[in-house]
């Protein structure tokens, strides 16, 4: 006597595992990987805006030259290079006492991802093109050292 209630259940054994493997392989894992890569792109976007803010802050508070400001910016975000950073003092040709504002901008940035391009092009990965980022701030002290209340000169901690 056969005690099995469903004779076809043995033939279907493992079908659920195979279906899950196929769904995971072609839908779940690529979606998870794309989400991680897009998170990295958003991180780069945020880092590019923060580095322009840092450069503008250093330019309006410290008497650092453009090379030092660019060096500190590229140390914070190594994806950009010093040639892609532009520091403009307004009005043009001003000194530390006559400047009214500073604008720091980063040229457009290309960020390549590891997401394959399924649109039929020959590129091996998607490339996100960031717009130019810029930050403008009004002039502050523009000096690295200042006189304190007792007349003793102290170093501005932002400029160290």
Automatic annotation (TrEMBL):
Mind telling me which residue stretches traverse the membrane in this protein? 20-45
Q: Which UniProt keywords apply?
A: Membrane, Transmembrane, Transmembrane helix
Q: Which residues form the TadE-like domain?
A: 14-57
- Domain of life, per UniProt, equals Bacteria
Q: What's this protein's name?
A: Pilus assembly protein
UniProt organism field: Massilia litorea
């Amino acid at each position: 006597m056969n005690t099995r209630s469903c004779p076809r259940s043995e033939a279907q054994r493992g079908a659920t595992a195979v279906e899950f493997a196929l769904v995971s392989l072609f839908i779940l894992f690529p979606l998870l990987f794309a989400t991680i890569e897009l998170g990295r792109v958003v991180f780069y976007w945020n880092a590019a805006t923060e580095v322009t803010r840092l450069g503008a802050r250093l330019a309006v508070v410290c008497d650092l030259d453009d090379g030092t400001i660019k060096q500190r910016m590229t140390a914070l975000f190594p994806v950009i290079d010093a040639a892609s950073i532009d520091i403009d003092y307004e009005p043009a040709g001003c000194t530390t006492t006559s400047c009214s504002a500073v604008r720091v901008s980063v040229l457009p940035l290309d960020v390549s991802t590891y997401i394959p391009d399924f649109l039929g092009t020959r590129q091996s990965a998607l490339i996100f093109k960031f717009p130019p980022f810029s930050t403008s701030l009004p002039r502050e002290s523009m000096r690295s050292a200042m006189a304190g209340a007792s007349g003793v000169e102290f170093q501005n901690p932002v400029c160290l």
